[in-house]
Amino acid sequence: MFDALILMLDSTVRLSTPLLLTALAGLYAERSGVFDIGLEGKLLIAAFAAAATASVTGSAWLGALAGMGASILFALLHGLACITYRGNQIVSGVAINFLAAGLTALLGTAWFHQGGRTPPLMGGERFQTLQLPFAESLADVPVIGGIYSELLSGHYLLVYVAFAAAPFSWWVLYRTRFGLRLRAVGENPAAVDTAGISVVRMRYLALVCAGVLCGLAGAYLAVAQSAGFIKDMSAGKGFIALAALIFSKWRPIQVMFACLLFGFLDAAAIRLQGQELPLIGAAPVQLIQALPYILTVVLLAGFIGKAVPPKAGGTPYVKER
Amino acid sequence: MPSEVTPQAPPSPGQRRPPAIELVGISKSFGAVQANRDIALRVEAGTIHGVIGENGAGKSTLMSILYGFYQADSGDILVGGRKVSIPDSQAAIALGIGMVHQHFMLVEPFTVLENVMLGAEGGALLNRGRAKARAELVRLEREYDLRVDPDAIVGDLPVGQQQRVEILKALYRGADILILDEPTGVLTPDEADQLFRILAQLKSQGKTVVLITHKLREIMAITDSCSVMRQGRMVATRPTAGTSVEELAELMVGRRVLLRVEKGPANPAEIRLKVEDARVVDGQGVERLRGVSLEVRAGEIVGVAGVAGNGQSELLEAIAGIRPLASGEITLCGKPCAGTDPNGLRAEGLAHVPEDRHRMGLVTKFDAKENVILGYHDRAEYRSGLFLDRGAILEACRRHMQDFDVRPPAPDLKTANFSGGNQQKIVLAREIEQDPAVLIVGQPTRGVDVGAIEAIHRRLIELRDAGKAILLVSVELDEIRALSDRVLVMFDGRVMGELPGDAGEREIGLLMSGVEAAHA
To answer: Where in the cell is it found (chain B) (predicted)?
Structure first.
């Protein structure tokens, strides 16, 4: 029983990682007042760029860099549309999702001729898991061994990066000048402007942060968790991350817990696949998978507190006459 | 704090400081609209200088140029005797110019301290700057008597205190010249007095204050000199001691205006509108109306005074059938009507001029003739079979426009392209045309220029004399006092007391700040 639980938590951590990185990406964008429904698209294009580059260059690291680059490029495209040209942020985000879905399929087929897949990544083309010190020797110690060697050790570097990124983002948001300005620009850009700070610059910077984090998430999907890119492999994770962001009311530490919860639901759905449960019968896997969305809708309906988005979110900043 | 600001010595006898601000030949146009034409302005250091003018006279544009929000098309700006260019707000701040905007530039979920620091954090990490800012705030508080709790969340503070935060922000950045744009619009008379005391204090410390306002009394009360703008031009500058309210009003409008509409005594008849113990709870579960009772009789204007946000809007909306009552009863011409929808109420003889004409009164993207029938579009006179009778609508619109002197009288013009005063006339025309028994009016002259205010006020008095029952909600105390036969003062969702229409400003102001009437 304990072992099963550890295994489940272990896969929770793995499955939460891309959600967490993506949700934090959304956090930077949305706290700056730019709604980012294009997380899914950035995740997908990053996964593709990472896998393609890793496969061609033979380096997982270069793959990750390329993933970040592609995702930043898409973030800047979003910025161009809705910061510089003051377009609708939702429309721009949806466009980015379509663009990523189409572009990855097209380029994947054209370049690798494997029906949209990239070639399987092997050896140094893929990230390796890290063993924490003494993981092996502690493995047989009851309880602690399970927790340390299974749950905490043996993950990809990006997993540790993701879980460090949450408290780090908290520190950035609440303890640095950049964070103060970022939060301010999402609440009242006019206040930021009159304080002599460029609203446009702040929002672009926030989108670049989002691009970096989405890039890491994409690299994790294609170059760590899986050995290569598969068509549409983001599979709605960008939207679940968005749900987690709303669920946590745009706060970094809470984002981490929301992602862990949603990751756990995902892990449970996988584990219960095809199993008979007492009383219920066949496990309602689809229901479990839909739970993140259901929970978010319940939250938005006001049953669990109230989710108030950054006040200036969704509206392009125009100096008033 | 910017280091390039040359510290100016406090004024000493015998030593003349150069003017704090001097504008020469400033012009600015937006497309075809010339907002400022060849403006000259001289503000002496260490004085309070008023700039008055109607809405759209170009005051705000001029000040935005001074604060680096816009660039002038031509002309020179001199600050402290030196010619400068102000490409952005940062440059203005560096020159020691601070601005308190009409709509506060505050981040509501932030603390006072965070708001003051924003843009002047003193380093990439907040910790060190925060300690410095806190110490500086304490100093400013002592020096200028600007008491605000640095750790309070700005959104929780009353408006008067939020305004102090804005002033503190400017002072923290080392402002020597403080520009205030319509600072008293949102304040109670008492808060306004406090603000004036602070401004006097700033002046005594050698700071220069520029006060932009359309309220003539403020100019008379606090300024040393004042300049009048009209249609983008600076038409006159006067020492305050050598001018009068009447002269300034005439300069502002360009012709003689009656500041007080003449009205005879009211002849109240039967009760037309009766509200009993009305309670309204908003979406957040907060009780916004806590048992309000009132009566309005035919042939009288009952004014509801109060600082914005004390339940007046909810009262209007409840009577108009837009907001449901939690409890209580509303009687219209003897018939109980709580729960009737706005359309039903209209049929019963209620007309509503909403507080916010853009949000509720008009569809600004529609043209004038379409707005003239909104809410009455299903009346037989505007219909021909299943369709709207375009000819009849056009005819009605023409008639309204003539009756109310709407300019330009163009039924096909998009409503957004009319000035505020003319938009308001369109709403009034629509509501009055149906010959209602009861008229409820919210902020009838908000954002309306002086000339149109006069016309709207005169119209309301005429309606009263024609036997209508009128309930007037306004945050402008002058308006309440000019029009009302009886004044109810609201505070925190309750009616604090009733005063006669000629009650003094102090008396009303006291009730507005929540102090019970002495005899109550």
So the answer is: Cell membrane
